[in-house]
Amino acid sequence: MHDPDTRGAPATVTSRRYQGLADLPALLAFASACTAARSPLSSSWHPGDIVWELHAGADRPHPIQFWLGGEGVQALAWLFDDGEAWLETLPAAEHLVPEAVAWVEAEWRARDASAPLKIRAYASDARRIAALEALGYRRAKQTGVNFRMSLKGPLPQAQAPLGVTVRDSVGVDPALRAGAHRAAWDHLQHLGIEGQSRFSTESYLA
Are 31 and 50 in contact (CB under 8 A)? Predict the structure, then answer.
């Protein structure tokens, strides 16, 4: 008797919800892999995005569903309170987009929300846009711009204002660092942004 030859067979993929810190390393590894694999396109997630959005709540469940295959996380969908969803897949797992979108839609219906559902996609990602349009979604107005700068050549030299020094955040008092964040984000009216930061010392330490 011989075992069946499973070479070339599709790997079994399962999905589940984010439960807490034990799940975080797998999501960070996924975000890192997506960032590298999708270059020069932009990935919806890089590790810093995930850490930032979770910050002090990384140890609690969140409305995040992720799909696990033979080599770790293959896809990730995250639904925010305002009805915007971010989803990403590894390039080889793009076929999971319809399933991820179905999860997002079911989650939004369960909240009995009246606002329209929005799914983020980059203008340069023609494959993702086509997949979403095939599911009935239509392009909305642009909501952001990404800025990039090559690090291969000399960096531009900027002159700090008199009496101001520029340094990294290593060793900075956490309360001062969090306060600087609040001060910056609470005063953006000149850019047409009204808001108030809730970034705390605890958030920074997390």
Answer: yes
Say how far apart CA 140 and CA 19 lie, in whole Å: 32
Whole-model pTM over 0.85: no
Backbone φ and ψ of 132, nearest 5°: -70, -40
Rounded distance, CA 178 to CA 34, Å? 30
**Tens digit of pLDDT for each residue in 94-126?**
999 999 999 999 999 998 878 889 999 998 899
Query: Distance between CA atoms of 181 and 120, rounded to whole angstroms?
Result: 26
| Rg of the chain in Å (alpha carbons) | 20
CA distance 134 to 145: 25
- Three-state DSSP class for 150? coil
- Three-state DSSP at 36 gives helix
The sheet that has 84-89: what strands, in order across it?
14-17, 64-69, 72-79, 84-89, 118-119
